[in-house]
Design goal:
It is built from eleven helices and seven strands. It has a seven-stranded mixed sheet, sandwiched between helices. The longest helix is centred in the middle third of the chain and has 28 residues. Helix 3 packs parallel to helix 4 and helix 6 packs across helix 8. The chain is an alpha/beta fold. Bound molecules: NADP nicotinamide-adenine-dinucleotide phosphate (NAP).
Length: 255
């Protein structure tokens, strides 16, 4: 399976461009398109046996619905969306092609996939999985094969909770009345690390972070746990109960 082109819808920017450069570097012919640049969806699906959807989450289902039916059974339809249940369901429903959900657990700012995690959700066919696993593993990625629902459950913890925490911290800093320039001279290494994370979340892709919080069906359960813990710590602070907080920090992991 070497003589085939790879089409990346959403390959003109972001993580799609990163994967276009990656597959190019591996010697594959790659066609990329965006909203206004590159071949149309029907041209991409005609010319490419592997079609990857890497558009923003809000546009993903629509693009899958357009591209999916145009592919044949021996083609591969794959997405790079940060959530897996909905896109994978839509790929299965709209296309006869082999379907693999893929989530690279890194952004376009990394230099290589060496040492990075990639989740694969192969849900139809088995012809293309080996190709992907081989090329990713050869480049040092750690591959986890799992079901879309399990991926999304883990992402609520890994991305949802992390970004929620970052957003709440940055909003609280902004509402504190202290100018950012005043903070620098008082900052600690941990604070500066957190500020670097905030700069990313409050950077050029607010839609990505908003979607990760809003579209993951596991978030409401996690929010309830978060609220419970917030209320608990808040009450201990209000009561001046340092030993209560200390006890929480020493509390063994939940079974
Ligand atoms: N960024 C990350 O760190 C990261 C990591 C893992 C997975 N992901 C996932 O990858 C996907 C893309 O995220 P991203 O951050 O790379 O987005 P992005 O930087 O906004 O790039 C999106 C790409 O999609 C194109 N595009 C936008 N709207 C489109 C539409 N309606 N139809 C066709 N193409 C469209 C853009 O091209 P034009 O601007 O030329 O139109 C661009 O090439 C999302 O599903 C996200 O969850 C992102």
């Amino acid at each position: 399976m070497n003589n085939f082109a790879i089409g990346i819808i959403g390959g003109t920017g972001g993580i799609g461009k990163w994967f276009a450069d990656f597959f190019n570097g591996e010697g594959h012919r790659v066609l990329v398109s965006g909203r206004t640049k590159g071949p149309s969806i029907s041209e991409i699906t005609t010319l490419c046996r592997v079609v990857i959807v890497a558009v923003p989450i809000a546009a993903t289902l629509d693009v899958i619905r357009k591209a999916g039916p145009l592919l044949s059974e021996d083609a591969l339809l794959m997405d790079l969306t940060s959530l897996k249940e909905e896109p994978v369901r839509e790929m299965l429903a709209s296309s006869p092609a082999e379907v693999i959900g893929c989530h690279p657990l890194f952004g376009p700012d990394v230099l290589s996939m060496n040492g990075q995690n990639i989740v694969l959700c192969p849900v139809r066919g088995g012809g293309w999985l080996g190709f992907l696993q081989e090329i990713f593993v050869k480049n040092g990625a750690r591959i986890t094969v799992t079901a879309p629902a399990e991926h999304d459950r883990m992402m609520a913890l890994i991305q949802g909770l992390t970004h929620l925490d970052t957003i709440l911290m940055e909003l609280s800093l902004r509402d504190s009345g202290v100018e950012p320039s005043e903070l620098d001279a008082f900052s600690t290494p941990i604070f500066r690390t957190k500020q670097a994370i905030s700069a990313k979340v409050f950077g050029p892709r607010p839609g990505l972070y908003a979607s990760l919080l809003v579209e993951n069906p596991n978030m409401p359960t996690l929010l309830a746990i978060f609220e419970q813990n917030f209320a608990l710590v808040k009450e201990l602070i209000r009561q001046g109960d340092a030993s209560g907080i200390e006890a929480l920090l020493k509390r063994p992991k939940r079974p």
